[in-house]
Amino acid sequence: MADKVVVYGEAEGGGITTSTAELLAVGSRLSRESSAELVAVFINGSNETGAEAIARGADAVISVQIPQLGEYEPELYLPVMEMFCRKTNPALVLFAHNHQGADLACRLAFRLGTGPITDCTALAIDQNTGRLRGTRSTYGGNIRATFSSASGAQIVSVREKVFEPLERDGARKGEITCFLPEVELPVPRARCLKRVVAEYAGKRLEDAEIIVSGGRGMESMDNFAQLTELAELLDGAVGGSRPTVEKGWVEQRFQVGLTGVKVSPKLYIAVGISGAVQHIAGAIGAKTIVAINKDAGANIFNEAHYGVVGDFKEVLPAFKECLREHLGRK
Amino acid sequence: MAIEPNIVVCMKQVFDPDAPPKSFRIDASGKRVVPEGVAPLISPFDENALEAALRIKDQHGGKVTVVSMGKAPSKRVLDRAVASGADRLVLLQDEAFDELDGYAVANVLAAAIGKLGGGDLILCGGQAADSNNGQTGIGIAEFLGLPCVSLARSFELGEGKLKLECATVDGSAEIEVTLPAVVTVNSEAFTLRYPPFPAIRAAQKQPAELMGAADLAIDVASARRITVVDLAAQVSDTTCEMIKGETAAEAGANLALRLIEAKLV
Ligand SMILES: Cc1cc2nc3c(=O)[nH]c(=O)nc-3n(C[C@H](O)[C@H](O)[C@H](O)COP(=O)(O)OP(=O)(O)OC[C@H]3O[C@@H](n4cnc5c(N)ncnc54)[C@H](O)[C@@H]3O)c2cc1C
Predict the structure, then answer these.
(1) Which of A254, A305, A322, A324 to mutate to test the interface with B (most CBs of B within 10 A)?
(2) pTM value surpassing 0.80
(3) What is the CATH topology of the domain spanning B6-223?
(4) Which residue of A22, A323, B88, B239 lies most exposed, with the fewest beta carbons within 10 A?
């Protein structure tokens, strides 16, 4: 029996999430490098979900059917995944490093008697040992570290938006099996009483192709608001560095960085941001970074692709005006 | 239970994460970061966990025990925790605790917490400021067979249970967990109070309790799972095209033109 590389899949509206498609793309390469089969596992997935996973690179899909499982509850999902792993003995299990995946990967690894490699941005199979090497950023973004383990299950979570999904191929074939496990679900000791979906003005950072982000250099809340106008003009979202969140110029959920959101837009415009590693840790996924800063020596210019040295009070209005003229928007 | 809770806070000593990037050097073995001229301090994430514990203590009484593990955790650094209001400081200190992986760290801390008699509530920072791993809390919970709630930003202690608010992708969740439990603390929620000067002096005089690998019934050497294969400084390979103009305003306009030309907007 071939080894298995397993992708923990998340369904979305009859299909799969973008992160799942990304995992299938990396998983597909890793399974080839280790002559393994790529299996996507979904908890309560549908046939459509399975078909979509196959079109995106899975060799086979296993849908674990436990009707009484609802939204993610760690204490209920963990025994299901534990049992799945004990039954199928995968060489490698890939999770997206998101809210659910990061949490479940970690719990599953410890449950299986090992540690996870979390938030990986590069993955490869060591051709000598056949073991996975996972690379992640440490020391707040100062160091890139590569980890491996000598034996046992390999559980990793993979940073979102680092890997490109494979082209969809509807002609790909693969088996979709249902699996009705005999697993006794515990009475969870931690229970979710209530979920609140927060209403925010403005686009989510995760969804935006363009992000306009401000730092302490914006000097005041009123100045910071200029960034909203710019973002609207570009159909983008507004983010901020940690100090701007602390000052209350922007809400916590829009903080970019190590302890905020890790974003991957096409364009990231940083205004009055010095470019501390902890901030860059969240912005490094951007395809193009633009910096506006009055200090020519600011570290942000080491990370940016385009830069203007100058006071934002002079640079921004002209920048905006010129964009407005050429883009023909109001 | 838990009217006056027994709270254990796990705190790691790290090198100041705010130090300039070039001070994070890699040694000749290529497997170890040796910061140069960087001060040791308590991982800021664990300060958040301590503050959460102290606020519970302010309200309900009880006791806060700080546990710090490493090859040589410094009492001088950890005194800050006692000065801020922790009752007890336990240093898990041993050569064998040097550069452990996340699995071994959780194993050792869980064993030590067990040895100390457990707690109603065990708090950890969301991640360590050096490894940025974010697995210790979950690991301790697994080893102790306790529930774990990740990244809470508010705490409400009740009879034998705790109500927590946690951030989710699209808002927040209210979670109730029975005690004893492990909770990791949201890094943006609790800034550690500043200890008054007399408290710092008093903390310096209070001795720490010491524990080594021999005091714990585990084989630390065989507890490692994940090893470092390679370390590299994160270097930026981008070159910045500086956009100029007669004035800053003109440079701003030129930037717009350049982005339009490059089809980035
Ligand atoms: C554990 C830990 C976690 C952290 N997590 C995060 C995180 O998630 N996100 C984050 O952002 N930070 C984080 N930080 C903080 C980080 O280290 C920096 O302190 C922070 O990013 C600095 O924010 P800033 O660039 O807005 O402010 P500053 O560093 O103060 O920079 C302001 C910049 O604005 C420029 N400026 C000033 N006035 C003007 C003007 N008129 N026109 C143009 N430019 C001007 C200045 O030249 C300067 O470069 C973390 C720190 C630690 C220790």
Answers:
(1) A322
(2) yes
(3) Rossmann fold (3.40.50)
(4) B239
